[in-house]
Amino acid sequence: xxxxxxxxxxxxxxxxxxxxxxxxxxxxxxxxxxxxxxxxxxxxxxxxxxxxxxxxxxxxxxxxxxxxxxxxxxxxxxxxxxxxxxxxxxxxxxxxxxxxxxxxxxxxxxxxxxxx
Length: 116
Known about the structure:
The protein is of the alpha+beta class. It has one domain. Helices cover about 15% and strands about 20% of the residues. The chain contains 3 helices and 5 strands. It has helices spanning about 15-20, 45-55, 105-110, and strands at about 35, 60-70, 70-75, 85-90, 115. It has a 5-stranded mixed β-sheet with strand order 1-4-3-2-5, covered by helices on one side.
C-alpha cells in the first residue's frame, strides 16, 4: 500500500505531517511558524531576536541560524518580502522516533525557496 501525499505540499503523509505542514493554514494545531510581529511574543533573548531580524534576505530565499544545542531558526522571505520563521529545537529532528519528527514541516517550510 502506497503512502498518501499531503494535500498542501505533496510530502508523504507520515506522523502528524498534515498538522505541521506550513501550507495548511486551516489547521488549528500550532505550526510554530512566526512572522515579524508574532516572533516578538516568543521567549527568545533580545540578542537572538535582533540577530535574526537583522539578516538581509532576498525575496524567495531562506537561511538558517544556529540556535545552539541542536536548535536552528529557519527564516524565509516570500516573493512579497514577508518574512516567516520556523524554530526547530533539538527534539524535532526525529531521533526519538517518527512521531517526534518535525522534519516534514521543515521541508514544507523551505520548499520552493532558494538557500542563501
